[in-house]
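New to this. Please check both lines:
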Amino acid sequence: MVHLLIIFSSEQELKMASNKKLLVLPGDGIGPEVVGEVRRIVDWMDKRRHVSFDISEGLVGGAAIDAHGTPLTDETMADAMSVDAVLFGSIGGPKWEKLPFNSQPERGLLRLRKEMDLFANLRPAMVFDALADASSLKHELVAGLDIMILRELTGGVYFGEPRGIETLPSGERRGFNTQSYTESEIERVARVGFELAQKRNGKLCSVEKANVMESGVLWREVVTSIAKDYPDISLSHMYADNCAMQIVRNPKQFDVIVTDNLFGDILSDCAAMLTGSLGMLPSASLGAEDPSTGRRMALYEPVHGSAPDIAGQGKANPLAEVLSFAMLLRYSFDMGEDADMIETAVGNVLGAGIRTADIAAPGQQAISTSEMGNALLKELDKLAA
C-alpha cells in the first residue's frame, strides 16, 4: 500500500512539474464556442497523454468592454505577459461598432500584440486532401500543400514615420508613408524563419523588392549575412511580385517564406485562399526569445473573425482554433508529436466526410461545432491507442 502511495505521489509531482502555463482568451462571437472545443482536447491530453496545462482564462474585446468598460484590462495584460502562451478566440461584433476608435474591441488584440512585442506572424497554408477540390486552383496543384508564410508584424510601411496626409502649396493633397527597417528588425524575423525551416523541410525563401527599394536591398543583405549560421538550410531570394505569381502557379515549391509587413500581408492572404476556406486557417504571432530562458512571448489565433451572425448557434467550425492549438504545442512547447497527432486527427475526420456548414459541399450534411469536437476526440482516441 505504501509502495502504491509513493508511485502516485511521484506521478503527481511529475505532472505538476510538466505544467505549462496557458492563458485562454475566448473573446466574442464564436470565440467561446471554438475555444471550448480546444478545452475538450486539453482535457483529453491530460487523461490520455499525461500532459497537464495550468490554464487561466480572461476577457478581451467586447466581452471585456461589457464587464470592465475596456477591451483589455491591465490585469489580463499582466497575465498574458506571465504565461508561456496565449490562446485567442475571436474579437468584435456589431454591438460595439459605434464605440470610439480607441475603445473598440479590436484595440484589445492590438494592445496584446504591441506590449508582447509579437513581431513574427506565422500563417500556414495547409490543404487537407479531402478539401483540395474546394480550392480555386487545380487539385494536383494544392493537394497535400503545406507552406508557411512568416510576416514581420511590427515594422515596415504600416508603422514607419513620417506618415500622413498633407496639403501642398498648390492646394492638392498628398498622402505619404515610410517603408523603414533596421538591421536588427530584419535579423530577428529572419532568424525565426531559419528556425522554422529547421523544424520543417529545410528551405527558406526570403521575399522583398531589392530591385526597386533600398529597404529591400538591406533586407536581402541581412538575411544573406546570417545564413552562415544555418548551414543546414537552403536559402533562396525572390521578388515579391514574382512570389505572388509563383504561389498560384506552383505553391508546392515553397517551404517557409519570410517577408516584410506589407508583402506578408498580401502574400499570406493570397496563400490562404489556396486552401479554399478561411475557417480552416490557424496563425501564430511570436515575440523575441528571452536569452536566459529561451522562452518567446506567443499568441495563437484562428484567421477567421467572430462571425456574430452564427454565434451561439453551434454552427462554427472549430478546426482553425484546433489547428492554432496544434501550432501552440509545436512552437511554444516543442511538442511536435502531439501537434502531429492533432493535425492527423483533423485530416482523418475530414477524410471521413465530416463537415461543418462552412466547408460542406452542396447537399452534404453539416454537423454542429460540438459534433465536430466529438469526431476529433474519437479520432484522437484511435490514434493514441
Q: What stands out?
A: Residues 146-257 form one domain. The two ends are 29 Å apart (CA to CA). Residues 31-48 form the longest helix (18 residues). The chain has two domains: 14-137+274-385, 146-257.
